[in-house]
Amino acid sequence: MLVAPSDADQAVPFLCQRIQKLLRRTRATRPDKRVLVALAGVPGSGKTTVATAVLAALVTEYGIKQVQVVPMDGFHYSNAVLATFADPAWAVHRRGAPFTFDADAFVKLIARLQSMPVTAADEPEIIIRAPSFDHARKDPVPNDIAISSRTELVIIEGNYTLLDQPPWNKIAQLVDDKYNPLSHPATASVFSPPPPLIPPANVFRRWFVDSPAKVVRQRLIDRHLRAGIETTEEAAARRAEENDIPNGLLILSHLVEPDVRICN
């Protein structure tokens, strides 16, 4: 496992340079293959900050234009759906826990991104739609994110993208691509040697953002106050301790081994 530099000014180039190598290799071997990266972390670890910084640097400094971040947040169940749960009050209180997301729909989207070929500029463009999350309304917005078939790299960002529990654990399998794309196992003889592993620079698709527990707790408190979810620091701390922090502990105890750990 690689560990990114703890200094953000060094961590972003570290990540971008490896993405650049991965894209070059993919373009040379399977130009129609989309690269998927799963970016996970506990609530308050700074996943969105990392994803935003990497996306901006890839576009402006590395000239990689066909790249997009797709967040998990849009797959929150709406408040209307939570109201149909056996215990609606508990579902709303625990909003953000794995069971309050439409995980099957999220995995289905990733599977489609994985299987759909990248199309060139002179080929017909296909648009896939994904939901976003409106923090003011505190509900998802259906079909708000457009993902072009010309997009070469998608960073899939969310708490549970590396959770080793079904159906979330399918995500790590969908983004993983450890075997050489030039090999053709379907036509190989039973006496053929196994396909060679791609060099480590290309096994770079599972990222985990790590932060000290005290830092995470304070970020969560500040977030709840800033969003107007709670009006006092005491209430914000209680919400973090009763919901966000237990969700984070679940992630840490059931984590698919990441390829890269990012200290934030």
TrEMBL record:
GO terms for molecular function: kinase activity. It comes from the Eukaryota. Keywords: Kinase, Transferase. The keyword Transferase applies. This is Phosphoribulokinase/uridine kinase family protein. It comes from Niveomyces insectorum RCEF 264.
